Amino acid sequence: MDITPFLKLMVDKGASDLFFSVGAPPCIKIEGKLAAVGQTSLKPEQLSEIAASLMNDQQRKEFEATMELNMALSVEGTGRFRVNMFRQRGHIAIVVRYLKGVIPSIEELHLPLILQTLIMELRGLILVVGSTGSGKSTTLASMIDYRNEHYRGHILTIEDPIEFIYEHKKSIVDQREVGIDTLNFDNALKNAMREAPDVILIGEIRDRNTMKHAIAYAETGHLCLSTLHANNANQTMDRIINFFPEDAKLQILQDLALNLRAIISLRLIPGINSVRVPAVEILINSPYISDLIEKGKIDEIKEAMERGREQGMQTFDQALFDLYKQGKISKENAIKYADSKNNVGLKIRLSEDKPHSGGEDLTIQPDDV
Q1: Thinking of the domain 3-99, which architecture would CATH place it in?
Q2: Domain Bacterial type II secretion system protein E, which positions (predicted)?
């Protein structure tokens, strides 16, 4: 079974993901919604055939040993894709993510322009968080490309696999793919500082060791960026803290208070015109936020963010209310995707209940001449 026609269909339809699973027809995801491609359910031998056609000998050995595989796939005339293979119910399953060749700008993604300021920082840790498919990788790519266009330096990325290809613009951009350019994540992380980068992008923080490296890079004067699976800034802080044993938590809070620069949280919300729009929560490590982190008062961070709009901060609920007021999302979706449905619902009701004209003509006429 040839995967190429399905990849071309993804590109033609603007799909983000392609799914192959035994017992179901192939499916593509467009604007967050799943659609079947045909009606014929896939058989185990078809999945095995597709997998065999995609893997080289080294990848085949890795998949047989771990039953998991991440790889990049380039198809001439079609595009680049990220492929994840795994096993479920004893059979192979495959998920393919389309990697758009052109890196969109921060403006084109309708992201807050404070991201342009953050990416030009000289040092610190910036985390982009959200659920799968929320736009973390694309947001990071737009930020890296902005710096690449405006600052002379060395940008180093460590990815599994490489998702976006950067051109050398004002900066030199070296991209290392795990399994191709480096044996494993750990080796690449250990050697990163010897490669004299100004900016280090880590594809994803998945464990304590990677988190320790990210903080160490920030401590030693580098700007470090990465992604994490979390829903918002508070959950991100909790996840980071829980990477570490109890006796190390005070130290990690101090490290974050000193070195965290920002947490950018993303959600893609169905828009009025059926195209999803980003709702963005932004935590910036101001002196007050730093003090809260050091004291472990994570539950007080959201209130501080709500009061920090002049510094560029905003919560999800503020972002959702703004999108509703701008006519980009419906009232129902603003409430549905909110952290506090009651608060957003109340804000919307209050905004709708403001006194308004009943339609009478209240124009002040000039004096008769």
Answers
A1: 2-Layer Sandwich (3.30)
A2: 193-207
**∠ CA 33-39-43 to the nearest 5 degrees?**
105
- Tell which phi-psi region holds residue 199, choosing left (phi > 0), alpha (psi between -120 and 50) or beta: beta
Average pLDDT over residues 316-329: 97
Contact 160, 203 (CB under 8 A): yes
Give the DSSP per-residue string, 150-205: H--SEEEEEESS--SPPP-SSSEEEEEEBTTTBS-HHHHHHHGGGG--SEEEES--
The DSSP annotation for 80-130 comes to EEEEEEEEETTEEEEEEEEE-SSPPPTTTTT--THHHHHTT-SSEEEEEEE
Cβ contacts of 290 within 8 Å, gap of 6 or more: 257, 258, 260
Domain boundaries in the chain? 3-99, 113-314
Positive or negative: CA dihedral 102, 108, 112, 116: positive
Question: Which of 340, 326, 278 has its CA nearest to residue 131?
Answer: 278
Structural fold of domain 113-314: Rossmann fold (3.40.50)
What is the per-residue pLDDT across 75-110, written as a single tens digit (0 to 9) for each? 999 999 999 999 999 999 999 999 888 899 999 999
Q: Is 3-99's fold the same as 113-314's?
A: no
Structure tokens at 165: 């290809």
pLDDT at 352: 86
Q: Say which DSSP state 328 is in.
A: S
Q: Which residues neighbour 200 within 8 Å (Cβ) at sequence distance 6 or greater?
A: 156, 157, 158, 192, 217, 222, 223, 224, 225
Sign of CA dihedral 194, 195, 197, 201: negative
Say if residues 182 and 162 touch (Cβ distance below 8 Å).
no
User: How many Å apart are CA 196 and CA 205, to the nearest integer?
Assistant: 21
Which region holds residue 368: left if phi is over 0, alpha if psi is between -120 and 50, else beta? beta
pLDDT in tens, 161-216: 898 999 999 999 999 999 889 988 999 999 999 999 999 999 999 999 999 999 99
> Taking a C-beta distance cutoff of 8 angstroms, is the pair 252, 241 a contact?
yes
Residue 326 pLDDT grade (very low, low, confident, very high; cuts 50, 70, 90) = very high
Contact between 26 and 20 (Cβ < 8 Å): yes
